[in-house]
Amino acid sequence: MDEAELLFTNILGCRRQDLYRNKKAVLNKEQSVLLAGALKQRISGRPLQYILSQADFFGFQFKVTPDVLIPRPETEILVETAIKYARDKRAEVRILDIGTGSGCIAVSLAKLLPQARIFATDISVKALEVAGENARLHNVIDKINFSCADLFPSCDSPYDLIVSNPPYIASGEIEQLQLEVRQEPRLALSAGIDGLDFYHKIIPQAGGYLKTNGYLLMEIGFGQRKKIEKIFQNSPNFEIIEIIKDYSGIDRIMVAKNG
Q: Does some domain include residue 50?
């Protein structure tokens, strides 16, 4: 569904096919005002997802606000990969989602993995409020423990999987991004001079939070593979076992096993 279709179906409260079945339909005054306001915001560079307060991810609909990163299709690959590795485990699977944002990863995993117990952290209290709303919306609030933390929670219990889509944009590149991307929270985008700050923080610590033979799955940015591989080389507990490309053929998901 393109942007125009999303906008009209949301304002009219109808399905996509209804837009084309009744081509002579006329907007009422309230709908006209809503559409004009939405178009004005969109022209100014505000992302459509923030205008509609919703985004689709992995076939589910999530609430989004300017306090959270807008879920992207590439991150769906991270969820698919986590499901694949979680299904190797027969008993209850404990999964930690670092930097949960809207909760799209945590909620999707909770819905699709009946045997999973999800733990999700974020440093932003406002982001956690949005994630909690999404968990309630999808009836999985009882399967997810949300906590405000700088990366890792205070809980010492080891996890089977750790997943993360951390910020990975170099600080000097932020102003070069598209206007609508710059509307998203800097906290969820910027990651230091080279974009690797969070890999330097997460990778050396993750082994202490993972069970033996547990997995660390991370989304990575364009051209970062070699540098992140070096960070893993300095963390001898880990062995990189898979690197998955996204829909554009870019290295996007890195999977490492804790030895």
A: no
